[in-house]
C-alpha cells in the first residue's frame, strides 16, 4: 500500500536540489571598508598632529600653519584632534553606516571646513609669506594632508551612498526624554557659535575669551560647528547604540580642551560672559558623553544588542520572528 504524502512538502525530483530559504539580509546599510579605513587614517593623523600641537601649546609656544597671537587657539585645535582620535579608532569595529554616521559626518565637516579656511586664507599661511622652517614645512604638510583627506572623504561618501542597504534597522536604545532638551540646547550652542565664527569672524571673535586672529577664529568655528552637528545628529538618531563612537568623542574632546584651558588659564578672560559660556559648553560635552555611556551600559545589560543586526542577542540567536 502506498504511504500518504504531505502535500505541503514538495516532491523530490532526481537531480534537482530542494529549494532552500534565502538567508536573511543584515539590517541597515553596511559600512564600507573605505569609510572605516578613512576614519582610522584620520585617527592616526589626529594622534600625531594633535599631540604635537597640544604639547607645544602647553609649553607656551605657537606651532601651526599660520601665525597665531596666542598658543591657546592652536592648542585647542590640537586638543580637539587628540580627543576625537579614540572614537575614530572604534569605527574600525562598526558594521553599519547607522553606527558610524554621527561621527563620520562631523569628521567630513572638519576636513572640508579646515581645508576651505586654509585656502581662503592662503596668503596668511607660512607657506605664502615665509617664516621659521618648521612652520613653513608644517604649513605645507597641513595643506597637502587636508586636501588629500578631503578627496578621500568625497570618494568614501560616494561609495557609501551606493552601498546596498538591507532592511531598516530598528532603534533598540532610544534616548530618554529628559535628555533631549539639554542635548538640543548644547548642540545648538556649539553650532551657532561655530557658524558665527566661520561666517563673520571679525564680529564673533569678540565672543572668544582670549586673543585670536581671523584664521584662528574660523578654524575654531569649524570645530565648534562639527561638535554641534555631532550632538544634534545624535539627537536626531535617537538611539544610544548607534551613537557609541560619538558618545566616546564628546568626553575625550572635553577633557583634552580642559587640560589646555587649565594650563593656559591666565590667558583666558574667565569672568566675561564668553568665558562663563565656554565653561558651561565644555562641561556640557563632558556630561553628555558620560551620561550617554552610563545609559548605554544600563540598557545593554538586560538584552545586549547584536552589532549590525539591530536585534537583541537572544532574538538573533533564536532566529527571531
Write up this protein.
The protein is mainly alpha-helical and 321 residues long. Helix content is 64%, strand content 1%. It has helices at 33-58, 72-90, 97-120, 126-129, 133-161, 179-199, 201-204, 214-237, 244-263, 273-300, 313-318, and strands at residues 305-306, 311-312. Strands 1-2 form a two-stranded antiparallel ribbon. Helix 3 packs across helix 5 (133-161), helix 3 crosses helix 9 (244-263) and helix 6 packs antiparallel against helix 8 (214-237). The two termini are 40 Å apart. Mean pLDDT is 84; it is low at 5-10 and 301-321.
Question: Which tags fit this structure?
Answer:
mainly alpha, two-stranded antiparallel sheet, 1% strand, 321 residues
Strand-helix topology:
Layout: H1 33-58, H2 72-90, H3 97-120, H4 126-129, H5 133-161, H6 179-199, H7 201-204, H8 214-237, H9 244-263, H10 273-300, E1 305-306, E2 311-312, H11 313-318
Antiparallel strand pairs: 1-2
* Average pLDDT for all residues: 84
Helix/strand order: HHHHHHHHHHEEH
Shape: globular
Gyration radius (Cα, Å) is 24 Å
Count of helical segments?
11
Which blocks of ≥5 consecutive residues have pLDDT under 50? 5-10, 301-321
What's the number of extended β-strand segments? 2
What distance lies between the first and last C-alpha atoms, to the nearest angstrom? Answer: 40 Å
Class from helix and strand fractions: mainly alpha
> Beta fraction of the residues?
under 5%
Give the biggest beta sheet: 2 strands, antiparallel
Proportion of helical residues = 55-70%
- Strand arrangement, largest sheet? 1-2
